[in-house]
Specification:
Layout (H helix, E strand, L loop, with lengths): L2 E5 L3 H13 L3 E5 L2 H11 L3 E5 L7 H11 L4 E5 L4 H10 L3 E4 L4 H15 L10 E3 L2 E4 L4 E4 L2 E2 L4 H11 L5 E3 H7 L10 H13 L10 E4 L3 E4 L4
Parallel strand pairs: 1-2, 1-3, 3-4, 4-5
Antiparallel strand pairs: 6-7, 7-8, 8-9, 10-12, 11-12
Helix pairs in contact: 2-3, 6-8
């Protein structure tokens, strides 16, 4: 069971989603405006947010960025936008996942379960810290530092970085990342993995042409290496 903040101004859609989520055992906290959602995120600390982009007071993409400025709560974006550019922009703004309208109750419940599994701490299985050269990752605190300076990573960027760092010297395929990080057999736009790797490279101070930590193995996947 999770407390889910449902940010949706369409009463019919909100009612149908609330029924589906409640029947699945979740507690639903509804909000019809972005300002109300931000207040709830700050004060009530929900376990997950479902965020519709078509809000009456603030554009949903801006609301997502505002949520990310105050909380690391998992966010699933509900959107009618289907273009690759729009989806990449939403992931870059901090969305953990997305569903495109229209979608079924079973579809959104499956996405919720997958995102909550990723967010659930596994302290007994996770090492307290991982060091690769100047890079230090503390999975339990979800912190990463490069040369002693904190890295500002989205939730998904951190998950990908930690997964690769735990497998230094091993080639990890895109399919494995989809299964083990996204917890999905496929994510619709497979190129989003490449986008996240590109964002990580930028934050690690490298490029695909001049890699330090993340080395692409053409046709296979990506490998974390120790640059020393």
């Amino acid at each position: 069971m999770a407390m889910i903040l449902l940010v949706e101004d369409d009463r019919n859609i909100a009612a149908a989603l609330t029924r589906a989520l409640t029947d699945a055992g979740h507690v639903v906290r509804p909000a019809g405006h972005a300002a109300e959602a931000l207040r709830i995120v700050s004060t009530e600390r929900p376990n997950l947010v479902i965020l519709d982009l078509g809000l009456p007071d603030i554009d949903g993409a801006d609301a997502l960025r505002m949520i990310r400025s105050v909380s690391d709560v998992p966010v699933i974006v509900a959107t009618a936008r289907r273009s690759e550019t729009d989806i990449i922009s939403l992931l870059g703004a901090g969305a953990d996942d997305y569903v495109t309208k229209p979608f079924s109750g079973g579809h959104i419940l499956a996405r919720i379960d997958a995102v909550l599994r990723r967010a659930r701490p596994t302290a007994n299985e996770t090492p307290p810290s991982i060091s690769v050269g100047e890079l230090t990752i503390r999975p339990r605190q979800r912190l990463a530092e490069l040369g002693g300076q904190p890295l500002q990573l989205t939730r998904r960027e951190f998950d990908v970085l930690a997964y690769l760092a735990e497998r230094v010297g091993q080639v990890v395929s895109r399919r494995e990342l989809m299964n083990e990080v996204w917890h999905q057999a496929q994510i619709g736009e497979e190129q989003t993995i490449d986008v996240h790797i590109s964002w990580l490279r930028r934050k690690l101070g490298e490029t695909a042409a001049r890699p330090r930590f993340l080395r692409t193995v053409r046709g296979v996947g990506v490998m974390m290496v120790d640059p020393r």
